[in-house]
Amino acid sequence: MNLAAASGPVIPNFGQGSACERTNGWFCTDWLHAHWGDTLQPALVQHVELSAVAIGVGFVLASALALAGFRFRLLDPPIGFFADFLYTIPSLALFQLLVPLTGLTVTTVEIALVSYTLLILYRNMIAGLRAVPPEALEAARGSGLTRLQTFARVEVPLALPAIMAGLRIATVSTVSIATVAAFVIPQGLGRPIFIALDQGVFKTEILAAGLLVIALALFADGLLVLAQRTLTPWTRSA
Amino acid sequence: MIVAAEFKPGTFVDAIRFMGDHAGLLLARTGEHVELSAVSLAIALVLALPLGLWLGHRHRGFLFAASVSNVGRALPSLVLIAFGLTVLGLGFWNNTAALVVLAVPPVLTNAYFAIDGVDRDVVEAARGMGLSEFGILTRIELPLGLPLVIAGIRIAAIFVIATATIAAIAGGGGLGEIIVDQASYGLPGVVAASLCVSALAFLAALLLALLLRAASPSPGPGA
Fold first, then answer.
1. What is the pTM of this model?
2. What is d(CA A46, CA A44) in angstroms, rounded to the nearest whole number?
3. Is residue B4 part of a domain?
């Protein structure tokens, strides 16, 4: 079973350690101090890497698809349908369906994570671009802007709030789904959760890793809110 | 490249064979999966739908509806299952609780925004015609907001089916039990069960799409 490969060194040890660890208390701070460096921190760093790569690749792919779907309306329904199709596949199933093709590798995890970002990013990009008021386009044409200039200077900036909203949702979901990656590769914050489950449900480790995932998702969301405020100063006054 | 060594598309053929050989097992696990998912989704609907619709009707609780959806998205399914396991122990109910927590946000938020976003002039017109508040909600706002309400239920259903798979690590049964136990079933079994659970998710999405079509008033010339 994959979990066995993921477990590695036995970390929480009911036999040694503090009284809290031996009795599997709710939240043993001494365990946290002892194992932050060898367990939680590396898992957190891996989690950030897995998520960041997926969001980066997903954003580039979705942008390309959105460009195609926006420019050629005929392409929009099939692209949307395809993204919706990928989104509907349960995460654990998608990971396992990729294993025969790309093995127990980071590639497998990234393909699945990227797939889940596409629908939200694509839909929000298209919706944002389509919602640009015709008057703005008229004004751009009147000022002598070319089609490309209109796109870069008028349509994209006006679509930015919708694009950023999509990016926020995609980021939070990716951070959340990346926990499931530990079923396939021994990386990310899902791994300490699996190890703890394997060792008779060691509560401290489950709670610590779980809260870290949630904190990471909220932190990333906060960063994107700040980024959005910087990028679209005109939306702030409203 | 490593990929070349691990590239074994033949596994899918073996998976299909596995389906034929173990149809009874897969069917039983699918049944468990449907049961866990359906019970959880039903509880989530009972909890979230009336609240979301009512808040939307009163145009109250915007912040509440928005933050429920934000917090809900940040809750990873695996973490919820593991938390449920620490608090409630192994079994059906810890998983049901985790799945309900996961399914409530999309249902609640979409119901709220669906009703809140209905054209106020239409609502005023209905009120002027003497419709009761309940009548306005059920005969005007709900039909108009239905696509968004059903979209929320669809997201919740997909979440629940996906997470019910993960629930196998906490004794939830279902198709996940095969997926997380490659030692017993082999990769073909894992792939077969993954295909089944994907099919289940598509079926749920399709059913809700059909429901939406059936429930939508046809925009005929007289409407």
1. 0.85
2. 5
3. no
